[in-house]
Structure formats: structure tokens, C-alpha cells
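so ive been stuck on this for like two days lol. basically i have the seq below and the ligand is zinc ion, smiles is in there too. i just want the complex predicted, nothing fancy, no docking runs or whatever. if the output looks off dont worry ill sanity check it later, just need somthing to start from for the group meeting slides
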Amino acid sequence: MTALRPLGILLALLFTLYLPSATAARSLVVWVYAHDDLADISDAQLNKDYFQHWIDEMRLITNHPIEVIFERNVPGITDITYSSMSAASLLAMFSNQSSDIDHQRERSPSYLNKSILLTKEPYDKSESGLLAGLAYVKQTTAIASLATFVAPAHELGHLFSATHNDAEVNFNGWFCETYTFETRLSLRSNCYRYSDKNRQNIADYINYYSS
Ligand SMILES: [Zn+2]
């Protein structure tokens, strides 16, 4: 009988070690580079207005923990003079610079990690309207302005494979647009969520890259 005891302990230990690695999901990390033109708005305020509703929504979609980390005063990124740049050039420049930072800080490349440049002003103002943000679809980098409370969630949605086509207008007492609805109409409100189809697109994307 006594000979079995060490085995019992060993099995218990293995079980204990095994269980967390099988169930604990790695974090989804979003680095938010707050442009210097947002110096007068605190991280807490930016998080409350532009990210907390997105985090709440993502928690309904995935069991992965979500970390939103604010970066400030990063030379070459948060001081880019972007007012005369097109959104496409700004996104390209940000992507290059942020990948250098990732390299310097020895962050392992992963499609579950995203970087977003947050600016006060929208882009491409000269054309038929304003562009509130831009993303490399299903990749890792995006830019978003404070033009609407949902601009970061819209672009993060694209990074996690949400599409315009699968977005929708819902009605719950009033019309609201889900996060990746393409053209905002000011008379409609924000739903502060993705459509059911986009929730599935996002869940599939996360499962694919975390398996
Ligand atoms: Zn879009």
C-alpha cells in the first residue's frame, strides 16, 4: 500500500500541472499608441470612452483574457505629423515603426497581438467625407481617430476579420449600427457590439491562430 503513495502524489501533481495549460488561454494584447495630440486626455478616459465597451463585447466572444496597454511618447510613432498625410501612408508608416518597436522589445510576433495608433483627428479630409480609421484586414496594425466612439472597435474588428458586409443595422427602440458598419449615419446610434456573423468571424479567427 505504501508503495502506491508516491505514484498517487505524482499523478496529482501532473494533473495539477496539466489542467491550467489545457484551459488557460493566452491573452489577446492590444497596444494603443496614443498620439501626442491626445496628451490632455488620460489613458483612463480614453479607455472608458473608446475601449471598455469593446473589451466587454470581446469577453462575450472569446475566453481569452484581453489586455489593452497604452503607450505614450514613443518617438517616431506618437509624434508623426499626420495632418497632411493620407490614411494609407500613415498606416504604412505606423506599421513599419511599430514592428521595429516590437522587435526592440522582443515581443513575439502573433496574430493575437494588435497595435493601433490612436489620433485625435480623422484622415483624408479633402474627399467626400472623413475617414475615421484604417486597418490592414486580418493583420496586426490599424490607425483610428476619436471621430467616433466606435472607430477603434471598428478597426480592431477588421484586424480580427470582421467585415463591412456582415455588419448590420439593428433596432432596439431606435436604429443602431454594429461596430463595422461602413458608413456612419449620425441619426442612428451605436450598438456597441458586432453583428452575430462578425462575432462568429472573430471567434473563428482567434481559434485559428490560438490552436
Ligand atoms: Zn471598415
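The pocket of zinc ion is lined by residues 154, 158, 164, 180, 182 (CB under 6 Å). Residues 123 and 131 are 5 Å apart (CA to CA).
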